[in-house]
Amino acid sequence: MSDGAHFLFLIALLPFVGALVPGVMIRAGRTACASFTAVPTALALILLMTFAPAVLRGEVIQAEIEWLPQLGLSASFFLDGLGFLFATMILGVGLLITLYARFYLSGDDPMGQFYTYLLLFQGAMLGIVISDNILLLLIFWELTSLSSFLLIGYWKHLPEGRQGARMALAVTGSGGLAMIGGMLILGNIVGSYNLTDILAAGDLIRASDWYLPALILILLGAFTKSAQFPFHFWLPHAMAAPTPVSAYLHSATMVKAGVFLMARMWPALAGTDAWFYIVGTTGLITMVLGALIALFKDDLKALLAFSTVSHLGLLTMLLGFGTEAAAVAAVFHIINHLTFKAALFMTAGIVDHEAHTRDIKRLGGLRHLMPVTFVIGTIAALSMAGIPFFNGFLSKEMMLEEASHTKWLDSYYVVPVLATLGALLSVAYSFRFIAHVFLGPVRDDYPHKPHDPPFGMWAAPALLTVLVLLIGILPAVAEPIVTAAASAVTGADLHPHLKIWHGVTPALYMSILAILGGAVLLAIHAPLDRAWIKAPRPEAKTIFDGLVAALAAFARTITEGVHNGAISRYLAIFTVASVGLGAVAFAGGGLSERTRELLPIPPVIAVGWLMLIVATVSVVLMHRARFRALVLIGIIGLSISAGFAYLSAPDLALTQISVETVTIMLLLLALHFLPKETPRESPMGLKLRDGLIAIAAGGGVGGLVYAFLLRDIDTISDYHIANSYEGGGGTNVVNVILVDFRGYDTYGEIIVLGIAGLIIYALMQALLEGPAARRLRNVDYSQDRSRDRHPLMMVVVTRLLMPIAIMVGIYIFLRGHNQPGGGFVAGLVIAIALLMQYMASGFAWTQARQRIEYHAMIGFGVVIAGLTGAGAWVFGLPFLTSGYTYVHLPPIEEFELATAMLFDLGVFLTVLGAVMLMLYSLSRIARYAGSADVNVEAMDYDPSERQSDAEEAR
Amino acid sequence: MHWIIAPVVLPALLAPIIGFVTRHDIRLSRIASVSGTVLLLAVAIGLALQAAGGETTVYRLGSWPAPFGIVLVLDRLSALMVLLTAALALIVLLHAIATGWDRRGRHFHALFQFQLMGICGAFLTGDIFNLFVFFEVLLIASYGLMIHSGGRERMRAGLQYVVMNLAGSTLFLFALGTLYASTGTLNIADLAAKVPQIPVEEAALVRVAAMLLMIVFAVKAALFPVQFWLPATYSNAPAPVAALFAIMTKVGAYAIIRIHTLAFGPDVASTEGIAATWLFPAAIVTIAIGALGVLGARRLMPLIAFSIVGSMGTLLVAVASFTPEAMTAALYYLVHSTFAAACLFLVADLVMSRRGGDSLTTMPPTAQNGLFAALFFGAAIAMAGMPPLSGFLGKLLVLDAIREPGAMPWAWTAILVGSLFTIVGFARAGSTIFWKSTSLALADEATGGSAPATGDMAIGARPGELTPVMAAIAALALLAVLAGPLAAYLEETSAQIFDREGYISAVLTPEEAAE
């Protein structure tokens, strides 16, 4: 890092930091805002100028900070002739634009925002031209797309502004994305993302197989940015932006980024046929086409926009030639184009600002009304036309000179002829700019009476025209910077001599031809214009809008077609994918030898199995009648419980039975509020499809189970069986697994249950507070109701059963650690006991006698389980480490106390609380729905009152 | 040394207390919930520092030796995920409180804490059945959060969400049954040790298990063809909940990263060709679905939801390479996309609550139109992968890491074209909401009938509402600025992910022997 090189970071950062300023300073007034915007730019420019001597000597200033070394991305900057040239242009014109915009923007426009965007954009551009790392360059590249999006869309209330902004973003953004690909490939070839390394590895790159893809992708980025054919169409639409933006983006900066990139990459990519034919040809076409369209544009800014397209084509073509002389011409023309084009845009802005129109057909004769503007505009336009003694002439001559000896395929004529044609058209529209705006008679139908603007507004373009003349007359003043920049582009040590008179060369003839031809074209412009308007031609915006709209419509069709909200289809796809992929996976491997023989099937089991099958098939057939389906599901559950019992899994059987009972009971209660029939929704074909899918899935699972049931394998359960008593203090392995070996799982599962309880409660609340509540109130349930809702016998029996059931529950809980049982089952059993009371005696009656809060039960359950687990910490042991001891309390026999039981208590409470909270939620709904005739008595017919009834009747 | 279980136990103890003790006082619930989340963040930072050294800490629950009991495993990856969860949770929680979302239904804070417990538990566990349990916890809690405050559309979407994910859970059980039947173990380290020993000729069952597990995780990660639930769920969930869900898809991605490198890694002969072969095309299609969804969206919430689908595709494209470099990129992208998605939902919430809906139609501008536009712009460029926020670096890392000639053209095309669609989609949406609306305001003034913005529209956002969004954007900016150190950490993380022997020996070496 050379002395002072770290100022490069400061230069790069200044615009971004400065972007914060205008948003705040706008409160101090518009002039203050503009002045403070100029400060960071001016500072950066001054810093940049301190490097001028060194850079012009040919030195390269470098500075680097590591950023993301894993990727090869570093915040490294370097400043050579080319970067210096562009940086000067960006900052210099930035200053002029700041000044110009102060007077251009009206009081209604949020100026702080404008300057913020402008500085952001300036920072992004500056970053591009001084990046020494192509990934960093990409970052700034994309930033220009984003910040130009904001600038172009600045007048956000205008549809043109919004559409232009989006179009620019889409086109330049897509180019940027392509460029990402190209740059990554390039980095891959070279093995470094360092620009300096890449520029030094040109031969390696050009020899690589990946050269062409990289070239095309990078050029896509450059062409879209620099509005090269066929991506040129966004640029004119970007003219919806305020004129200062157009002047900045389309003379000095944004569109030059593509040209800059091609110049920058010149040593690495140029010099091949592919480069010549792609870049050169694209440039040539763009130059001619842009100039042609410009000639027929009536909007001043559109004319200038297409002229910019044309000149960018010229620059691209020159770079595409791949010769050193062409590179010099390109660099020189970059400077010249900047000076006259920025001045012209500002002139157009002044005209628009003063006359309130930019339509050439409504203008003319402004020479007398706006003399200063006339002088500025004319000088700049003459330079654009390439008239001697204006700087545009010099670089155009050099271009024609290069074109005159460039061979395209086998033709010596294509390039010179087309280049001359381009120059000729350029002369024509430049002359038209002067003649149709300023010359001619003064009209009396301007939308607004024009006059020269205040000094502040014409100062900037005036300064630029001074440069136009200065370089035009004394080209040697530009020699040092052109030398430095051209040497940087080509990587060779060049010493070009810029002069006005080159002798009688082909270029001179071509030039003369162009000027004469241009004048003739202008003379016959009116008929040509009529013909042009009549001629059919593709309208790029219509095509682009149509394309985007079609794409969006296509995307919408696909998206909404695929995500149509049919859960049955989602599930079908999920199932098909699972079965299909599962089968593929299965086919990729083999099965081991089977180690087990099939057991004989006892008749009882066969009957049970048959019952299971019949019940299941019946559910499928009868699922529309929901009550019946529930009963059938109950049968299935019981059969499975029986199966567990038969297969020596009493714990599972117990759990299954109680879960089954609770579930069915709750479902029955819930069904009360739901339609009793499922409507028919699927047509036959769909049913068939779903049936096949279901059979495939069921068959797959069955096959899988069959396969692994026949094969023995060593499992960790052996350890559980061996250590259950000694380590866990219980002889019931299943329970020890649940509360000890895998107590953590149980902990999670009871929390699931607790959450479910909470959710049901929250759902019920939402339901009762929402519109559904009204519907609920208005449903007539009397049809379903039995006259004997709370039968005497049932009430009496459930009351008798209650203490017994609770005893059983406690028993099951206590013996759980050693015998089948445990907190989970116990919780369910007691829940069933309570459920029965609800069913028999009614919600209201039971609820009135129920004083424990279910929330509390869940809360305590989860907390007790958690604290039991955490208790182990006190002993320095991990969560859920259990301890047990045997206690002898006379007269009871010796019994065991285990922390696992405390944990099980947590399980018990949570299960009970959750089930009861669900029940409570249902009962809330029931009371809400039938609040008119809710029972307060346990029985509909109280026998004790029967006597008096009878007496009364008598 | 017990800190490793704190991210699970802390919210698990706090949630029932919030659910019961403080349920009648929203302020008390808020205080408890925020303090819990701050504590969680502090613990997560501590754990991340502990893991940064490269040590794999194993916590044997109930003091049972692995693989017979359940273990928690803290390594760089799980520490990172827990830290990410905690940071995101704090941002989302503050937003939910500031905007008053938490009081629009019951039990928000209790469910929120349970949700955190589920997520942290899934990241920390070293046991695949326990992973299932925590999948259940986070599923049921997320269902509760998703339908928070009710509403017809939300209930309908919630039902689809829970049904789809219960189907996934069922498949998870099938897969675990098959896995247990073919390996005899549930401990991930033990699986990693045993699966490679199964000869291919006998691997049919374990292959099925590996495949089914991948589908299960893909459901969570919203990967094609099981992504269907995500757009409707996220776009109908309360916005802060959708923001929190940004981490939920990452649980699926995490599980794939963990299980399909350790147990069924691409170098394991017995399960060869399962993860890498199928994950890649699925991820590519997922990117396409996301991109098309963004471009074609009619409403803002689905647009964001589809952009998340796309980001999951990008993330899993990187994962599918199963190389350390690509994994580093994937992890960076994972962290980035979590914040980006959350940030988008939070901004969208601020705007939608003022516009009274999320349809992409022109309405008069709300208060602070410019501020909201700026925040949306920031969040959108992050999601679309544009500089200067972390999305661009994430995208570059992913692109740079995918170098295999067969995969590169597909992946690059999908990611780059997908980015373009996303950019265009966001630009269209943003310009309609924030720019086009201003033309209506002008038109109003012109006709003289200027109705000043009324009701919710006129209420500016309070600092409390803006802070979480800004924090998210700041996080995205920090991720970009500190990309170098972060990537260095992630590089070590992915090295650790692929260090199968290290993981196995850390978990399976008995504690006494290790000491």
Automatic annotation (TrEMBL), chain A:
Give the record's membrane topology: Multi-pass membrane protein
Looking at the record, the residues that make up the NADH-Ubiquinone oxidoreductase (complex I) chain 5 N-terminal domain are 70-115
User: What Gene Ontology molecular-function terms does this entry list?
Assistant: antiporter activity
Q: Give the organism, scientific name.
A: Kangsaoukella pontilimi
Kindly list the residue ranges recorded as spanning the membrane: 6-26, 33-56, 76-100, 112-130, 167-190, 210-235, 275-296, 303-321, 327-351, 372-393, 413-434, 455-478, 507-528, 570-589, 601-622, 629-647, 653-671, 692-709, 750-768, 792-812, 824-845, 857-880, 900-920
Q: What function is annotated for this protein?
A: NDH-1 shuttles electrons from NADH, via FMN and iron-sulfur (Fe-S) centers, to quinones in the respiratory chain. The immediate electron acceptor for the enzyme in this species is believed to be ubiquinone. Couples the redox reaction to proton translocation (for every two electrons transferred, four hydrogen ions are translocated across the cytoplasmic membrane), and thus conserves the redox energy in a proton gradient.
User: What's the chief localization of this chain?
Assistant: membrane
Pinpoint the Na+/H+ antiporter MnhB subunit-related protein domain residues.
794-916
Recorded GO cellular component terms are:
plasma membrane
Location(s), subcellular? Cell membrane; Membrane
**Would you tell me the protein name for this molecule?**
Monovalent cation/H+ antiporter subunit A
- Keyword Transport belongs to the record: yes
User: What are the residue boundaries of the MrpA C-terminal/MbhE domain, all occurrences included?
Assistant: 687-765
What PANTHER family has UniProt attached to this entry? NA(+)/H(+) ANTIPORTER SUBUNIT, NA(+)_H(+) ANTIPORTER SUBUNIT A
Query: NCBIfam families attached here?
Result: PRK12648.1
Q: Where is the MrpA C-terminal/MbhD domain?
A: 612-676
Which residue intervals define the domain NADH:quinone oxidoreductase/Mrp antiporter transmembrane in the entry? 131-409
